[in-house]
Amino acid sequence: MKVLNILSILTAAGSAIASKCHPYYDCCKGCQTILTDEEGNWGSENGQWCFVDEKKCESVLGTCKFEAIGYPCCSHCDVILTDDDGNWGAENGQWCGIPENCGSTEPSTNQSVAPTENFFDNELYISPNYVKEIESTIPDLSPELQAKAKNVEKVSSAVWLAYEGAPNDVAPHLKAAGSKTVTFILYMIPTRDCNSLASAGGVSDLDKYKGYVDKIANTIKKFPESKVVMVIEPDTLGNLITGETEACKNVHTLHKQALAYAANVFGNMSNVSAYLDAAHSKWLGWAADKVAAVVKEILDNAPNANIRGFSTNVSNYMPIEAEYEYHQKLHDALEEVGIKDKRFIVDTGRSGVDVREEFDVNQTWCNLIYAGLGEPSRGSPDPENMPLLDAFMWLKPPGSSVAPTENFFDNELYISPNYVKEIESTIPDLKNMPLLDAFMWLKPPGEADGSDTGSRADPVCGREDSFPGSPDAGSWFGEYFASMLEKSPFYSDDTVEPSEQSTPTSSTESAEPTSQTSSCKFEEIGYSCCSHCDVVYTDEDGDWGTEDGKWCGIPENCS
């Protein structure tokens, strides 16, 4: 029988425990973060700054937190040492970590705490940036289309986290959001969209991707009352199944690791509802068994990933009923491999016209000329017949980029001064669709998919069935928005109740001044002055905040 040398182990452990996590500051004993900067997270203990050990505090790499600091998890609960990291045991002459609540029938604190509710049943956010894009096109529209465009301004769409600085946008979005649901799309995986050119990009390696994900997650944790939907990496799963180019083959393992990491992080947060993207029915509808096998491989390497389900049709054009047939196939295939009770959301932003026949000709994904705006975003579209559908959602605003690669928000925040009212409309037969959580505009309609010119030119965007004259991916494409708006069967005056409050209107379009003696210039264009200085939005008129669900202007030199 091998004898365990406790003294030598204790000595080695003491040395490891004494090591620093920052060259100039002590490691925090706890995990409470009170400040985040470019170096990481900071706490304060005994009146001194300390550096929060992310490996200890934000571990998502294994079944217990000790794996993140280089130790296995014990298979027993016999504690022989306790230090700042927790309880320790020993197995086979080596230290092992003992999870909290070891031996208890209660779930470990490291087990998933993902929400069970449908976050899309909550109030949804409307992007002021998207509203401004629509406003820029309205003067060029007919009176009939102008009225429809005003109704489109009330539809919630997703925020894409798709450029290097995007994690810095999360906090201001959530601050403005309060308890309302905001949908983010994580789209920064290394070698992103390996099978095309228009939306290529992403971070350079897996470690940077983990840091990108961690920064977003750590920010969300500072807003525990927020409700966040996180859609994880559109197109990546599709390329894992069908990507036959060398560029795709070379990153299969990397992409699986990255998806597992992101799912493990966001699928284990109490205020995040995570959906892994699963392409669309035309892409993977024939391969549900293959999709399920790859998903199982990914989730097997993400032990805390209690994702809610899957998103489909992001930036695409497939009708709801076609997507739901795919949902059913994928749901059954997932059940066969032990992945149970998953839900779906479908991007309806550009699915207002059934274009399957036209799409089949060339499978043109870039600014397809036949598309029309689809169902507005909303949760539980038919709770009686579709209890598993979370939402219809505009994940990509129609006309928007498949892959935004710069900051299109410029620190402008998603705000929701009004409730997004449920819209009655004539829709396809959606009976017997229990897998759907929601309709959601995941891509904001009107932003371009890509261009056939410039540094990221993609030949698909130059086809005859791709709307001509497109700017780069992510840029506003007003002509394409107008085309989809005209073809849409929705958003006429009698289908959407008018908003009581919209995004602040530019002074060039405002009413006559109400007073020359107002206490701030914003009263002259019909808005009150804020009683605070918290800026959530800036345009040519100045800085804006919100009070009582309404816009208010922030005076210059506010203090």
Automatic annotation (TrEMBL):
- Asked whether the UniProt record includes Zinc among its keywords, one would answer no
Q: Which portions of the chain have biased composition (kind: Low complexity)?
A: 498-517
Q: Where is this region: Disordered?
A: 446-470, 491-517
Record domain CBM10: where: 20-53, 63-99, 519-555
Q: Which UniProt keywords apply?
A: Carbohydrate metabolism, Cellulose degradation, Glycosidase, Hydrolase, Polysaccharide degradation, Repeat, Signal
User: Which GO BP terms apply?
Assistant: cellulose catabolic process
Which domain of life does the UniProt lineage start with? Eukaryota
Residue sites binding substrate per the record: 160, 280, 283, 316, 365, 396
Q: Which GO terms describe its molecular function?
A: hydrolase activity, hydrolyzing O-glycosyl compounds
Return the EC number.
3.2.1.-
Against InterPro entries, the record matches this protein to:
Beta_cellobiohydrolase, Beta_cellobiohydrolase_sf, CBM10/Dockerin_dom, Dockerin_dom_fun_sf
| Catalytic residues as annotated in Swiss-Prot or TrEMBL | 235 (proton donor)
Q: Which Pfam families match?
A: CBM_10 (PF02013), Glyco_hydro_6 (PF01341)
Key word Hydrolase present: yes
Signal sequence coordinates: 1-18
| Entry similarity comment | Belongs to the glycosyl hydrolase family 6.
PANTHER family, per database record: 1,4-BETA-D-GLUCAN CELLOBIOHYDROLASE C-RELATED, PTHR34876
The protein here is known as Glucanase
Organism field: Neocallimastix californiae
